[in-house]
Amino acid sequence: MLKDQRGIIHLLVILILLAGIVAGVYLVQQTQIFKPRAVSPPLSVPETSFSLEALPKVIQSGNPSKVSLTYGLGDLVQVNVMVRSDIDPANLFSAQIKYDPNYLEVDHIDFLGFIQNWVEQRWDEKGKISLVGGVPNPGYQTTTGGPAGLMASIYFKVINAPKGPGVATISFDDSSAIYRNSDNLNILVVKRDATISISSGSDVKITPQDTCVNEIDYQSPDWGSECIKCIAQNRPPLVDDIRKQNPDLFTGCSDRELINYWCNGGIKGGEAESQCKDDRLGVCASACGETGCIQVITPAENPQTGECKDFPSPCDVPIGWDKVDSCPKPVPLGDGNNDGKIDLADMSVLLSYLNTKESFPKSIDLNGDGVINSVDYSQMIKLLIDEGVIKG
């Protein structure tokens, strides 16, 4: 009898173990219950990268919760902009992002990541997002195998549900860059995009309301792109009529410039409507002992002071100066890496020397006070806007 009871107990233990194994296999297969599949696991190989990670939609809260990677009309989709810089510290991150405006619009963006100094936070209705931000010297670095850094979280709204299942891709533009803190070179190697599945539904699109509702709005000096759009939609003859007034004068003018011309009573601000020509031929004839002096830029150097400058013509070169092939061009203010142009690499140089008082390139001391600080940072942003690198 005792042997029979022991046999039954052993059998029950075996059955319990088998049941546990079966349950374990089932739960492993249902990993989506416990963590989003869209979030990439830590990498064992060092890299420098941008990644877009779309978080799943929670369809059942609780423990366990259930999620889905398919979204419907009106749903908000959280997409995290993740950064890895495992090999070298970086100090400037430029994420240029594209998305499909037929399906998605930006609802809002949270800037709660590791970025300390934002250079640009901009997005539009045409499917473009520009996020540029930095971390001053010594910069920001991740560790191989550790988590990636969060730059920002973009919340998209699904504005169009197709008749059949659809897919919206969010990707990085080729102009995206990560700048190394030590030499300010772009070290971005890997870009990972995100794909969002959109469930089928009625082919109806949610259209944002126009913010420009009357004539007073778009006559205001601080009207924006929405008002331009409003004019283009509600009063299309306006721009055409202005352009027809003087086709030669308005050739190449944008709609915004034409509206500005109209709003200011027909006076095109900031631009002259005629050009003056100064023909210096023969002006210096008596002084130079020549019958004429062709107006051609002539570089010359003062051998005593070393000063070199360009003169309008050979006749304008002072006595005692030596004509030379060219004058050395001074490094433009703001050109931190001395490559002859102002771009985000120069902002990276500034961040490498932020809050320092020595050993920095003079060209990034934009206010000339002998220290690189927040004033220079603000002026560099203005300079980048003036140069058309960012829109502010």
Give the helices and strands, then pairings.
Elements: H1 2-29, E1 48-54, E2 57-60, E3 66-68, E4 70-71, E5 76-85, E6 90-98, E7 104-110, E8 117-123, E9 128-134, E10 149-158, E11 166-172, E12 177-180, E13 190-192, E14 194-198, H2 215-219, H3 225-234, H4 236-245, H5 247-250, H6 255-263, H7 285-288, E15 298-301, E16 308-311, E17 322-323, H8 344-352, H9 374-386
Structural class: alpha+beta
Estimate the global geometry from the Cα principal axes.
Answer: elongated
What would you report as the Rg, rounded to the nearest angstrom? 32 Å
* DSSP strand count: 17
CATH class of the largest domain: Mainly Beta
Low-confidence parts lasting 5 or more residues at pLDDT below 50?
27-39, 202-237, 264-292
> Might you state the CATH topology name of the largest domain?
Immunoglobulin-like
> What portion of residues is helical?
10-25%
Give a quick account of the main beta sheet: strands, pairing sense, barrel closure: 7 strands, mixed
Count of all domains: 4
Portion in beta strands? 15-25%
Q: Termini separation (Å)?
A: 88 Å
In DSSP terms (H or I, runs of 4 or more residues), the helix count works out at: 9
Encode the helix/strand succession as letters.
HEEEEEEEEEEEEEEHHHHHHEEEHH
